[in-house]
Amino acid sequence: MARRAEPHEPRRVVAAGRRRPAWVERERRRVLRELRAGAGPSGIASLQSYLGSPVPVLGVSVPYLRRVGSAAAHRIQGRSPQEARALVRSLWEGASFEEKEVAIELLGRPPLIDHEVGWRLGVRWVDAATGWALSDSLASGPIATEVAAHPERFAELLRWTSSKNFWRRRASAYALRAWVLAGELDRPFALLSRLLEDPERWVQRAVGTWLRECWKKDRARTERFLRREVRRLAPVTITVATERAPKSFREELRRSKGRRRVERRGY
After folding, report:
1. One-letter-per-residue 3-state SS of the chain
2. Which residues does 107 contact at the CB level (< 8 Å), separation at least 6?
3. Which domains does the chain possess?
4. How far is C-alpha 72 from the geometric centre of its chain's CA atoms?
5. Which residues contact 158 (CB under 8 A, 6 or more apart)?
6. Cα–Cα distance for residue pair 138/120, rounded to 1 Å
7. pLDDT value at residue 164
8. How far is it, in rounded angstroms, from Cα 108 to Cα 122?
9. Does 151 sit behind a cis peptide bond, omega within 30 degrees of 0 on the bond before it?
């Protein structure tokens, strides 16, 4: 049965048997009040469109959003993972983009980070984290931290590359963040190679983004990979992957891809 929402708050339905503990509801409302206090001006539909957010955006600045998330993380440090899960679920189910971002922030902090409860919750959110901002925040944040701490979970990322949901496929690339930044490129190249022929532009851009980051860490190895796989690279992947590379290298890849396309057609 639906409960009455507090004044000025969109109605929410809490499923039977899912009544929130009193402290969770107090904390959720506190976070929401703080977010609203930092909300931007009205008429920010363009920001929602830019972020690709499936829910309304309050227009809170990134530094302010991080302060709200950090403060909430500090307040729940003494809670059990199960208690913290109740709070982050309530925030994830919130009506605004910023509530979901705070939920992601808390997922990457104690007591949920490096705990099976937090990992499983994040994995379930991946398909629902639509729009590049939410998807990338979740995948490159707590998901990436967890898979780096538990390399055996890389096998699960590999399975994501064949998901029917293209946001999960994109997330598999962003979840490589920790390994790429550490210069540990074996797993990133193995996973990205599975995504090279993905038909979705959002995935193609993600592949290009992380090949560009690989190039920063090991230019020679990344250039060899790009030359070897050029036939399978989407045009946008080449563009993004070579943003930091010499223009001559980008043009070389484009010419090579063009020649191979003609050869395959038998012209």
Report:
1. CCCCCCCCCCCCCCCCCCCCCHHHHHHHHHHHHHHHHCCCCCCCHHHHHHHCCCCCCCCCCHHHHHHHHHHHHHHCCCCCHHHHHHHHHHHHCCCCHHHHHHHHHHHCCCCCCCCHHHHHHHHHHHHHCCCHHHHHHHHHHHHHHHHHHCHHHHHHHHHHCCCCCHHHHHHHHHCCHHHHHCCCCHHHHHHHHHHCCCCCHHHHHHHHHHHHHHHHHCHHHHHHHHHHCHHHCCHHHHHHHCCCCCHHHHHHHHHHHHHHHHHHHCC
2. 88, 113, 118, 121, 122, 138, 141, 142
3. 1-112 (no CATH), 151-267 (1.25.40.290)
4. 21
5. 172, 190, 191, 194
6. 13
7. 98
8. 9
9. no
Please name the residue that has the structure tokens 């946001």. 167
pTM over 0.90: no
Residue with structure tokens 């469109």? 49
CA angle, 207 then 127 then 112, to 5°:
100
Residue in this structure with the two tokens 């007591």, named with its chain if needed: 111
Q: pLDDT band at 40, cuts 50/70/90?
A: confident
For CA atoms 207, 208, 211, 216, the dihedral sign is negative
Question: If pLDDT is split at 50, 70 and 90, which confidence band does 42 have?
Answer: low
Q: How far apart are alpha carbons 58 and 95 in whole angstroms?
A: 10
Question: 92, 116 in Cβ contact below 8 A?
Answer: no
Q: Left if phi > 0, otherwise alpha if psi is -120 to 50, otherwise beta: which for 41?
A: beta
Q: What is the largest CA-CA distance in the chain?
A: 71
Distance CA(53)–CA(130), nearest Å, equals 7
